[in-house]
Specification:
single chain; 327 residues; alpha+beta; Alpha-Beta Plaits; Molybdopterin biosynthesis moea protein, domain 2; 3 domains; five-stranded antiparallel sheet; three-stranded antiparallel sheet; 12 strands; 15% strand; disordered C terminus
């Protein structure tokens, strides 16, 4: 096979990618739209310093070529046979090639995706609105002072924005929606946001897909934490248990609830019919123990009541006033 990449730099990049494809089972595809080179460099340093993995950024055509070479079994006639002779098949890797259609980067790492996400997506930078750009979010300007002098009020009137002059500056009297998500930014919208020194958008890396041991996953599934998995499992287990109880279907999730419900029914019957059985002792012991202190307290109150002296109905004052007849 003739050498498809005669450029030395391209050959080195492809060889590097070939070795990384062989070393790592997990490849994270990140979107790099509007991401600066400083942000990419910061992510590379963070991955390297934390021993999390390696990021490779290159042209999509070169990445797809590297994937094609990695999937093709080498022969002794190939110029790079020595570096590729340890070839092993990687099923589904061609699906990753089909996803490299925009400005993307590949992160080779065996670390869990939820630990990579803060490193890759945490470094976001504010950015101004540019003419012709598709707005990633809706932008609204709140009512209040603008900091602009009254000489520029005609600009706001041309855009039908309600304003007034307050303390020597222009003040917007009503909230203004500049654009909605998905709209293209017009020249007047960009100039308005620039005059108000508003940078409404922020850009950074975004995880798009994850190739993990021959499987392709989107970002939501790949970045689930162990706590998320446990919570989802518990939620579905509760639903299955509730449905099984309703249908009367015994299984590993519902049988414990069924036994508990039947035991409660037996206890209710026993209480109504004055019957006793061994399993009820733990239920009847608690009321018996708590009844004694209550009765003792009641007896104490009655004893205190008996000991209280009765009020004397007639009080003898020693004949101080004598009888009526003596008066």
């Amino acid at each position: 096979m003739s050498d498809p990449l005669k450029n030395v730099g391209k050959r080195e990049t492809v060889t590097k990618l070939f070795n990384l494809f062989s070393k790592y089972k997990q490849i994270v595809l990140v979107k790099l739209d509007n991401v600066s080179s400083n942000q990419i460099q910061a992510a590379r340093i963070a991955l390297r310093d934390g021993n999390k993995g390696v990021m490779v950024v290159g042209k999509n055509t070169l990445i797809r070529k590297a994937i094609a070479i990695r999937m093709e079994k080498p022969t002794e006639e190939d110029p790079d046979y020595e570096s590729r002779k340890g070839w092993t098949p990687l099923p589904q890797l061609d699906r990753l090639s089909n996803l490299c259609r925009q400005k993307v980067g590949l992160v080779f790492s065996d670390a869990p995706v939820f630990t990579l996400r803060p490193i890759l997506e945490g470094n976001r930078k504010p950015a101004p609105a540019r003419v012709g750009q598709v707005s990633p979010d809706s932008v609204t300007i709140p009512a209040g002072p603008t900091g602009l002098d009254p000489s520029q009020i005609s600009f706001f009137h041309a855009l039908s924005i309600s304003t007034k002059i307050m303390k020597g500056q222009i003040e917007i009297t009503k909230e203004v929606q500049v654009c909605q998500k998905g709209d293209k930014i017009t020249n007047s919208q960009a100039v308005l946001l620039q005059k108000l020194n508003i940078k409404p958008f922020s850009y950074g890396m975004e995880i798009q897909y994850v190739y993990d041991d021959c499987s392709i996953m989107d970002r939501d599934i790949a970045s689930l934490t162990p706590q998320d998995v446990i919570a989802k499992f518990a939620s579905h287990a509760n639903r299955i248990a509730a449905m099984s109880l309703t249908l009367g279907e015994p299984n590993a999730l519902s049988v414990t609830h069924m036994i508990a419900n039947k035991f409660k029914a037996l206890c209710a019957i026993a209480v109504e019919t004055d019957l006793k059985f061994k399993q009820m002792e733990s239920l009847t012991a608690a009321p018996t123990q708590t009844a004694a202190p209550v009765e003792a307290k009641k007896e104490t109150k009655e004893a205190d009541k008996k000991e209280e002296p009765k009020e004397e109905e007639d009080v003898n004052m020693g004949g101080m006033f004598g009888d009526d007849e003596e008066w």
